[in-house]
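Researcher: I'd like a candidate sequence for this fold, 145 residues long. If you have to choose between options at a position, lean toward the conservative one.
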């Protein structure tokens, strides 16, 4: 199977430790993290994705806000520059251990964090990066498909 992700969730998955907006959100994200750790590929999408799914039934989900769309734009630019490849809707990405390590290293030094400005999780994610990404749900030792 393929996991549908919007661009800024390429950053969020780096520090995901099981905290989220609701119990349904974290159960869903835990399953996505496990699938990523098993080596499932990613299809980049525009707008709400598989991570957003549990939030879409709520009143006025933030997943459609202009600020979130801007986060996607900034993340796509930074991740694309880092990986030297386009990060845009329709692109498939295999998140292997080497790419995950590059993303985490760049995230830890602020190289791909412009999209994180104004995010309510920014402080937590910074602390997780400073702690060496311990306890994160997407594992470094991604199993190849």
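Model: Candidate sequence:
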């Amino acid at each position: 199977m393929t996991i549908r992700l919007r661009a800024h969730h390429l950053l969020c998955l780096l520090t995901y430790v099981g905290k989220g907006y609701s119990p349904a959100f974290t159960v869903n994200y835990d399953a996505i993290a496990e699938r990523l750790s098993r080596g499932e590929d990613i299809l980049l999408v525009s707008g709400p994705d598989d991570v957003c799914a549990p939030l879409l039934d709520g009143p006025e989900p933030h997943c459609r806000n202009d600020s979130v769309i801007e986060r996607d734009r900034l993340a796509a630019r930074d991740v694309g520059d880092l990986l030297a490849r386009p990060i845009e809707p329709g692109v498939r990405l295999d998140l292997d251990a080497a790419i995950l390590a590059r993303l985490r290293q760049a995230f830890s030094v602020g190289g791909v964090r412009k999209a994180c400005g104004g995010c309510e999780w920014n402080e937590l994610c910074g602390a997780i990066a400073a702690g060496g990404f311990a306890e994160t749900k997407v594992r470094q030792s991604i199993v190849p498909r």
